[in-house]
User: What shape does this take?
Amino acid sequence: MVCSPRALLAIGACLTGMGLLSGPTLGQADPAIRKTNGRTPAAPAAPVPPVIGTIDLDAVFKSYEKVKVSSEEFKAAALSRRNELLKIQAEAQQESELMAKLTPGTEDFKKCENRMTELKARYEAGREQAEREFAAREAEAMATLYKEIQAMVARVAQWRKMNYIVRVSNQPISGTNPNSVMAAMASTMIYADPSNDITNDVIHNLNLLYRKTSGAAAKPAAGAPAAPSGGGAPAASEEK
Assistant: This one.
């Protein structure tokens, strides 16, 4: 049997009425659901007042000495693998030049052709393996560096009695650089008190800890930022 429009409207009105009736019932049952073992839970603790600090994460990555060392190691390893692939490519080029001098169909030509096929396969397999390997290596290195920076940010923030750290950019805005203007306009942070910026503290202590753990010279590299006033937060290795 086909329902008329009036019947459908009537059914809809009934369902709406049931919803209105059931709404207060569920609302009234809510406090009872929240009880545990028949007892009303204690009132929640008052929230901790937010103390917000800022950090320029790009500046930290650029000034963290371990990032520079890791980048150089990565480039050296990539260059070494590239040279290996170039050797295979050079062999293939030699075989190609040799094939051009041989008569097609001869035994030597077939051997040279098989050698070319083998070298091409080795080159492609090596290239694909290198891409996967270095992509994974780069991701792992970035994850490690970010975790180290994140841990130091937490230590400095706790030392500065801050409970929130938000990311900002301290790069100057220039009319001659449209990208800097667009980046500033896209940022959610319009103004931040510079006295609450922990960028230099984090950089100072990251490099201090890195020099101690890696055995690098204690003297900062040329152009490295000076220690923040007060010496910054205690380095992680000095805390118990």
Q: What stands out?
A: The longest strand covers residues 52-55. The two ends are 80 Å apart (CA to CA). The CA atoms of residues 55 and 109 lie 65 Å apart.
